[in-house]
User: Fold this.
Amino acid sequence: RYIKVLRGLDELELGLKEELGLKEVYVVPSGLNNIETQRELGKFTAEFLQQNLKDEYTLAVTGGTTLAIVADLMLTKKELTDVVVVPGRGGLGEEVEIQANTIAAKIAKKINGKYHLLHVPDNLNKDLLETLTKESQIKRVLNLVKNADILIHGIGTAELMAKRRQVNSKKMNQILNDGAVGEAFGYYFNQEVDIIYSTTSVGLQLDELAKIEKTIAVAGGKEKAEAIIAVVSNKYQDVLITDQHAGERMLTLL
Ligand code: G3H
Assistant:
C-alpha cells in the first residue's frame, strides 16, 4: 500500500475505476520491458485469483501469454476443495502453450482442482457447431462454463490478435477498417465498446458475462491502452488488473 501511494498507483486506480465504472481496478508497477510487466501482472493476478477462489467454485479462463504467466505463477495450494477449471471458449487458433485448455489444466493442477477441456476448433459451419454442442460431453463442459463463478480473460490489440489467430488478410483489413481496436475471447471491439466481429466458437457468449459473479480482465503494456478501453466496461467486467504505463495512457484517452 505504501509503495502504491508513493508511486501514485492508488490515484491511478481510483481514476480508472471512476472513468471505467468498474467495481475494482488494480494497477501494478510497470517493468522495464513487456516481459517484466507481464510478470508483475502475473504475480498480482495469480495471488488475486487465489484469494478469490472458494471451495466448489467453477473458474473459466481464456488463453494468451498473460494468462499463461498467471498460470505459471500460481502457487500450489491444496486447501481448496472441488474447484473446477474450464476454458471460457473453444479453440481460438492459438499455439498449444497459450490455449485456454492448457491454461485451465495448469491452474487446476496447481490448486488441486479438476479441469474439463473443450476440443472444438473455431470457424466451423453453423450446423456442425450446433450438432457438436449437443454432444453430451461437450454440453456438460459448456454448462459448467456458462455457470462459472469467476471468469478471467486477457485483452489483445485487434490487429495482433487477428494475425495470431490466422484471420485471413481480407477479413482482417475489413475488421480493422470497421474500427476494431481491442479483442477478448474471440470478440473484436471498437473504441465505443461495440462488437465489430466475433470468431465462431463454442463457449461463453458476451451477453452471458453479466451473469458471472466476477469477471476479471487482465492486460498491460502501454500499447494495449486503446484495446483495454475498447473491451472493458461495467456491462461485462467487474475487475481490471493492469499496469502503470497502460493505466496512465488510458487516463489520457478516456
Ligand atoms: O484475447 C486476448 C488475448 O488473450 C491476449 O493475449 O495475453 O498474449 O496479449 P496476450
